[in-house]
């Protein structure tokens, strides 16, 4: 198809003269390097009005040309973080065209480009990427039986108040600060509690309340020795313990303790995507707690630990 372009007044008159001399429309389009539909519309307009000038279009004419619109799109795609003011300056330097920032945004909207918050992900080095690929290749063919031997573990913190700015309210213009449409925030969530737990396909540990800061010694003496290792022994000699790369989990005292016979540990690459299925359980547990009526007003677990003989709070999940 010939490249699209706009005919000037001389070319439009020439096209009509050729057509009146008996030149076919397709040949006229070929000579002028335009689509045949351009010539068809031109002949129709000349037949109806006797003029070759374009009809006056309603509304305010565009300040930019199609070429400048494509340049705006290209500038935005080259530098995805460029603001409308930066694109405005770059366009002024390149084409000497001065348009408003809102016009820049309107042109980008026409190309289906809109300003969004960027997706957040960890910074990955080549070593991180290689470790990710190696982990996937080692486990891509694992069967359900093999995964059932993995004891997934993690800690989670539960707060009384969410400060993630995802709450939305219905309000009219001029009502940003009325009591029913604002949100009160409390520093650090207004109180929190941290718990540790682990589960596999057929086993689970009690839920342990972590009081204060978790260190490598506390992780070994209060969690691994009384809770995780006995559960692994119940699972059998093929059981594998999984935990992430938090500093207490990778402390030297923890690594030395897990070197004992009968304890297998899954390698977990640094900055890996958090695919631990226990994260889904923490989310469901949080929803269960918040669905209570009345909602919880205290984060204390009375300083007690849920022993193996008792029923843990997550036993109903």
From TrEMBL:
Which stretches of sequence are listed as region Disordered?
A: 293-317
Pfam families assigned? DDE_3 (PF13358), HTH_23 (PF13384), HTH_Tnp_Tc3_2 (PF01498)
Q: MF terms per GO, please?
A: DNA binding
Cited InterPro entries:
Homeodomain-like_sf, RNaseH_sf, Tc1-like_DDE_dom, Transpos_IS630-like, Transposase_5, Transposase_Tc1-like, WH-like_DNA-bd_sf
Report the superkingdom from the record: Eukaryota
Domain (Transposase Tc1-like): give its ranges.
Answer: 69-140
One annotated GO biological process: DNA integration
Give all residue intervals belonging to the Tc1-like transposase DDE domain: 149-294
What this protein is called in its record is Transposase
Q: Which organism is it from?
A: Littorina saxatilis
Q: What is the lineage of its organism?
A: Eukaryota, Metazoa, Spiralia, Lophotrochozoa, Mollusca
